Records
---
Amino acid sequence: MAGMNLEDLYRLLRTGHVQAQSMIDTIDDPLLVLDQTLCVQTASRAFYETFEVSRDETVGRPIYELGNGQWNIPELRRLLQEVVPKAHAVLDYELSHDFPSIGERIMLLSAKRLFHPDNNRLNLLIVIEDVTERRRINHEKDLVIGEIQHRLKNLLAIVQALARQTEVEGRSAREYQDTFLGRLGALIGTYELSISGQARPDLQELAVRVATMLGSETVVIEASPNVTLAPAQVLPLGMILHELGTNAVKHGALSVPGGRVRVGWALSGAAGDQHLALHWREEGGPTAQQPAAHGFGTRLINAAIRDLHGKVELAFATTGLQVEVTLPMR
């Protein structure tokens, strides 16, 4: 509230309406002053601008009649009505509503009694804080933390698989070390490639890194056209391939000797309106079983597909998991 607390506002409102109105109009958060019947006596400029309403639509009307009834909440009305007789204060009452002009918003509403110095008339001062963006940022942070934790577990699982699957028969310690560290370097490079802000890679490059990470002899990249990825496509596609690769190592074709994965893609449509179809086909492994519940990996793939504005189809076949990913390349 631009460094001004509620007590400062109370003092201002006692000094005169014109001066008080001009001062509260400088505050960023929307403000309302209500009388004992919960009718609006005055509102701040921030209120009019935030909710895109006029003074005529606001002043003199009960708060629960404003707009399309967004404030007409029985619990809120009860809380406000108790502020005056019981000297209670309402602090950070959360209100979610789809406002007609500004869309879905999450608001924190606070209210406190306001005394008039001349006639002891009791009014309510309402402060409304829009926390929509803050909640969105916090939600995204939670998703990022969850993703980091999940990808770290997958990363460790793949490192263990690399150590197990790297052949030792007929190799020296140096040869084993070189092979293992080469695959580990490819794993690190694949994760770096999926970080936004890097140079735009070709889909072939991303697939090769995943294949090297999992074991080039067990992942076959089929002949496919060149596809340059947009920055916003690198991370989601990298996440999808990582999840499929991890699942193949843990439960699918790459969890048994002789298992294979075939990866390829095709483009369709005219220039400027092309679609990419990428397939992931496992063979030689155990029969694919549909999980009883969606884990974080499945949710992560679905989230990545939403980011790509595409779709994914999974088939749990006796020959192994079959996955088709399609997305627009506009």
---
Amino acid sequence: MRWGLIPSWVKDPRKITLMINARSESVETRPAFKNALRRRRCLIPADGYYEWQASAGRKRPFFIYRRDRRPLALAGLAESWIGPNGEELDTVAIVTAPASRDLAVLHDRVPVAIRDEDFSRWLDCSTDDAAPVMGLLAPPEVGEFTWHEVTTRVNHIDNDDPQLILPITDEQRLAENAPKPAKRPTPRKVRPPAIDDGQGSLF
């Protein structure tokens, strides 16, 4: 599925804002999400997620995960958009909730993680009713999650390796905090004067 939900009633996906998160407080009534909440709930497996915290004028990335290191199952909503020529696009968004007291030091919101014993309940869309699952859209308990700072290499999409979730080392932190050398100005190329060949060219 493509990251960023596109409601089925959208006429042109290129003209809609990318909706990657659905707020738990309004997901039941917001037109973009309410049908997916009733009929197309899904789970998104993850080892953890990243959040950035502003510190000393720059944002530092942190990896957030369960304290017991078990995988997460994030509450997702899915939609299938069908275009005028029959093209189909499957998209997904994650439900978020206000952060618990401890996680709020990093960000005021967190993705909702569904507990193992509630998987079937969350995935059961047979009743076409969201009321039975609204109580699941809550942040984790205080102390359930932990986190550590990671390298800013995570900021670049080309980087995709296991090192991105490891705690940052002292050497990496020093290198990343070091002032960057000033860019040398690019020499300006001087074009030779044009030679008038008498043709009177307009170009």
---
Amino acid sequence: MAVEAGRTLKTARAVLRVLSLLEQAPAGLSAADIAEHLGRSASTAGNLLNTLCAEGYAVRDERTACYYAVYRPAPAPPTTADAIDLAVLDELYGRTGERAYLATVEDDRVVVQDTRGRQGLPTVPGLRPTIRSEAHALAVGKAVLAHRGADAVRAYHDAHGLRAFTSRTITDLDALERDLVGVRERGAAGDDEEYAEGFSCLAAPLHGPDGVLVGALALSLPARRYPEHRERLVADLTRLAEAAFGSLSAVPTEPSSPPPPAPGPEPEAART
């Protein structure tokens, strides 16, 4: 039989009423107190209290026979990384025509969470979703290292070394630290065939509203286009990274210059 719209359960209302009474009585209430408030029998009050105790919403003090509400904190708000509006990734791809990446910082690694790019757009060969020992050779890794402090950079060096992925990879700690100073000054990191020959990348750090580093926004493109388009791409990238936690309406709708042609199928979202 269908339930009538608006019908409520008296028992459910009674349980919620008991919980409300307990929350308003930090010194506790006995079953007799609850029965008096509800105008019910002591056995009914006891059953309602037992239900709350069984579900973890109340506890009984065996010494005093009083019941107390259990403090249950409100659900935690989304983490700063979760608060990133993925529309910023669509906007970055739409403005640049290059493959776009969103990565987050997770302990000692950088994790690529999502990408945008049309089918057939070249991807960086060998790039894995989880970036650890290759961070120094990738723009997205440098964007994170540059803002984690000198101690974190040295700890990274001690843990992973500075492996050469190509002849352009920075393998000297002093040289890497100088490069990271430039990243902080420019607001964006770059790698020009430092991880994979024929590919260049750019990345800008993502800082939450509280200023905490949570990840990076990045682009990859064929190295032959890098010198010509780098300045424009950095401008778009840094503006959108700053808007990642807010409204995109504050960001100019027109790119600084037309992006390279992007023929082919419609853009698709794809996990690296």
